[in-house]
Automatic annotation (TrEMBL):
This is ATP-dependent Clp protease adaptor protein ClpS. It comes from the Bacteria. The keyword Hydrolase applies. One of its GO terms (biological process) is proteolysis.
Length: 91
């Protein structure tokens, strides 16, 4: 194996890094736990357990990352959260 082939092989092995964004859900004094959980299941494809854990984190910590991914894939999910009356943003 010559040097050029070795360098090419190393370059091909490096993972492609994508810029991932996050949807952050914030606590409020308006929405019930049940509403938040149902909305996370519907909007972010969470399981019931994931949604419940996120709701608890939001309640006690003030915010929680509920979904990560590419920006254009997060926009419709974040819009659903906002339409449901939750406080969320993409960061």
């Amino acid at each position: 194996m010559n040097t050029q082939e070795k360098v090419l092989e190393e370059v091909l092995e490096k993972p492609v890094e994508k810029n991932n964004n996050e949807i952050v859900l914030y606590n409020d004094d308006v929405n019930t736990f049940d509403h938040v959980i149902e909305t996370l299941i519907y909007s972010c494809d969470h399981t019931a357990l994931q949604a419940e854990q996120c709701a608890m984190l939001v309640h006690y910590k003030g915010k929680c990352t509920v979904k990560t991914g590419v920006y254009k894939e997060l926009v419709p999910r974040c819009s659903k959260l906002l339409e449901a009356g939750l406080s969320a943003e993409i960061v």
